[in-house]
Specification:
This protein is an all-alpha fold. It is built from 17 helices and no strands. Helix 1 runs antiparallel to helix 2, helix 1 packs parallel to helix 9 and helix 2 runs antiparallel to helix 4.
């Protein structure tokens, strides 16, 4: 049964991976999911050899059953980066993210060194012997992966909670990013449940429990259904950025400049930004222009969306109040700057200034 499930997963994932790479040519999120899927297909493919190949094959190529193990250390970081792309369309991989691949690189180089120095027969003679050096190095990978489960799931859940906080803070927002919170919850919490199942399976297997194979089959089946849902959704649905791409014709530069002056005269000059209930509709009525034109002018000339533009004005006002009267309570500054909740104020202030209001006032 385990052999059938493994092979089913491998071949299904292979087909889905090819489709994801085709879709991911223009979309980083789909490409990252495709990279994750390709590593999983390669890992499961090599692992499936242990279920289908004969002993002669292992005797001649025992390193294939050993050298692929570090690939498991890539699974969680790659899915974490996929989640980052889902949570923020501004996210991009850069050099600082290379540290996430250090466990894989260290294990891979270490395993290669064992293979080169000791040779195939050493691996063959020790890979299934408990407490042997080869066996324990393979076990070390399994332990590191379980630790990755705990650390990365904590990071992903924390990121999701921050996104939910931002969405709640923008309930009366002037522009709200198109985000499907329910789908994000499915991705993050669904993956966390799968990882928990994998940890439980690992514990029961180490204990030698007779129910370990059954739990392992349940865990594998869960992961298969979970990822099938994600791959299917990614392949069959349009990327959000495409769906919300503006279709309106851009106004001429001169008209945008003139409109921006009128916006500033109303929003800044008459301090409309201090109203915590300010909406895009109110700005449109004050300026006597269409909402989409106002959004376009701010997006193009201020290089930010309307909500960020208003918060930028509010934060600048808050900075002046914090420095002008250092004895004034922060919550009073918050209300006087157009914010009505502490969470929204702190979040916007930290995003704009890089410090909390208290740290800014104290010059830290």
């Amino acid at each position: 049964m385990a052999k059938t499930v493994h092979l089913l997963i491998m071949y299904t994932m292979l087909v889905l991976t090819l489709l994801l790479f085709h879709k991911g040519r223009k979309h980083p999120r789909s490409l990252m999911l495709a990279l994750y899927a390709s590593v999983e297909v390669l890992t499961n493919g090599l692992n499936s050899l242990s279920l289908s190949a004969d002993w002669t094959y292992f005797y001649n190529y025992p390193y294939l059953h050993y050298i692929y193990k570090p690939l498991y250390c890539l699974w969680v970081p790659l899915f974490y980066f996929y989640t980052r792309y889902c949570l923020s369309k501004e996210f991009r991989l850069n050099k600082k993210h290379a540290m996430h691949f250090v466990p894989f690189l260290l294990f891979f180089l270490f395993f290669m060194a064992i293979w080169i120095i000791k040779g195939n027969h050493y691996i063959w003679a020790n890979i299934y012997i408990k407490n042997s050096f080869v066996y324990n190095t393979a076990l070390a990978v399994d332990i590191i992966v379980k630790i990755q489960y705990l650390i990365y799931n904590f990071l992903m859940i924390r990121l999701l909670l921050n996104v939910e906080k931002e969405v709640r803070a923008q309930k009366s927002a002037l522009t709200i990013q198109s985000i499907d919170i329910r789908w994000l919850r499915f991705i993050v919490y669904g993956y966390a449940i799968g990882c928990l199942n994998a940890i439980v399976t690992f514990i029961f297997d180490r204990m030698g429990s007779p129910v370990a194979p059954t739990i392992n089959l349940i865990s594998i089946s869960y992961f298969f259904l979970f990822f099938f849902a994600i791959f299917y959704n990614t392949i069959t649905h349009k990327i959000v950025e495409d769906e919300v791409k503006p279709k309106a014709v851009q106004l001429p530069a001169s008209e945008l400049q003139a409109l921006m002056h009128r916006i500033e005269a109303q929003v800044t000059g008459k301090k409309m930004f201090l109203d915590p209930e300010l909406t895009l509709e109110q700005i449109a009525l004050a300026v006597n222009d269409k909402e989409r034109n106002i959004s376009q002018a701010i997006n193009i000339l201020q290089h930010r969306n309307v909500n960020d533009y208003i918060n930028h004005l509010r934060i600048n006002h808050a900075c002046l109040l914090l420095l002008a009267d250092k004895d004034k309570p922060v919550f009073e500054v918050m209300y006087e700057s157009g914010f009505n909740t502490k969470g929204t104020f702190n979040l916007a202030f930290k995003k704009a200034v890089g410090k909390t209001p208290t740290q800014f006032r104290e010059g830290k």
